[in-house]
Amino acid sequence: MPEKIVQLNEEVIKGQIKELVRGSVEETLNELLEAEAEKLTQAARYERSDERQGYRSGHYSRNLTTTSGDVTAQESKKAAREKAKAVVEQLHSMKLKEAAKKVEDGIEETLTYCEFPFEHWTRIRTNNVIERLNREIRRRTRVVGTFPDGNSALMLVCARLRYVAGTQWGNKKYMNMKHLEAALEDASVAG
């Protein structure tokens, strides 16, 4: 009588378990978010009611808990300074004196964006526009491969910059200058 042997492919089973866990975590998180949205708006999705407190689109401030602690977008320059001082103290306690000195020396320069209107802070802190332009130039130069000399590479980059400056992409307003004008008027009236 032949012996029955059962063989299991361990990799297939691990893959299926991983997908099962991923799917159940995703489903749980989506249900939690759905329940929270219903609680906040006092209405289910697409429900029209007099008790509705708001709409489901948009966002609000939340804390993100990481292994390094709670992360929050800073409300003021003072709060950012206090957070930076706490980081410096923590680095000192970890005996990382050079890192603490670097952070301490760069606090004011890093917080320069706080001198501008609050609405401009995210635009000033990030360099998304420059990164997008650099990716576009990198993409164009990779197509060519090798250039005969530096001038031909420079001419290609300049031609791309001229094109961007002359199109809608170059004409987009990155910041609403009305906020800055209002801040300058307030400063001139106060001063």
Structural class: mainly alpha
SS elements, strand count: 2
Using the alpha-carbon principal axes, give the shape: extended
Q: How far apart lie the N and C ends?
A: 102 Å
Biggest β-sheet: strands ordered side by side in the sheet = 1-2
- Largest sheet: number of strands, sense, barrel closure: 2 strands, antiparallel
- Percentage beta strand: under 5%
Low-confidence stretches: none
Q: What does this entry look like structurally?
A:
This protein has 191 residues and is mainly α. It has three domains: 10-56, no CATH class; 75-114, no CATH class; 123-190, no CATH class. It has eight helices and two strands. It has a two-stranded antiparallel ribbon with strand order 1-2. Helix 5 (128-144) crosses helix 6 (150-166).
